[in-house]
Amino acid sequence: MWRFRLESLHRYLSKEMPARTILIYPNPLLKEVCRPVAAIDRETSALIDDLVETMHAGAGSVGVAAPQIGVTRRICVVDVSANRHGCDNNHGLLALVNPEIIHREGGAVMREGCMSVPDYTGDVERSTSITVRFLDRSGDPREICASGFEAVAIQHEMDHLDGVLFLDRIASLKTGLFRRKNYK
Ligand SMILES: [Zn+2]
């Protein structure tokens, strides 16, 4: 027991939080409509930390949503700043609590992948520019305009909160779905 406590303390002090396990399709939790977050408390903060850690642990990952680690709450994180498609146009690390898209414009098809669907990528049409309203991790209301790759990443992660995967948005399973060539 002491050993356990010391290990927990050590982990806390070193801020070394392990990445959480990503649920893989067809896990039924990935199809659930998530519940809104009522209050940003310590539990919510810890969940956001876990999501950020899990996102950074995934090779090339630009976002993770709470249901992907088994928590059916309306929270996701996005960070496209290290990705070559999004590096010159982004808001850095975003923690989106109860996000809503209040305006959208344009449309373009892009190839998407998802840590919960490791063997495939797919062509999905998304809005090219969106305005998102959400609570940040301090509980303050925010509104941002995102475009390009960041807008796509936000729409992808927000879909997870409604139990929607990119697989559900592919127009043609014959021509729009691709097997991943490289395994990580
Ligand atoms: Zn995903």
Binned strand content = 25-35%
Structural class: alpha+beta
Average pLDDT value? 91
Relative helix content: 25-40%
- Ranges with pLDDT <50 over ≥5 residues? none
What general form does the structure show? globular
Task: Describe the protein in words.
There is one protein chain. The protein is of the alpha+beta class. Helix content is 25%, strand content 26%. The protein contains 4 helices and 8 strands. The strands form 2 sheets. A 5-stranded antiparallel sheet has the order 1-2-3-6-7, with helices on both faces. The longest helix has 16 residues, at 42-57. The protein is globular, with a radius of gyration of 17 Å. The termini are far apart. The model has no long low-confidence stretch (mean pLDDT 91). Bound molecules: zinc ion (ZN). Zinc ion binds at residues 114, 116, 156, 160.
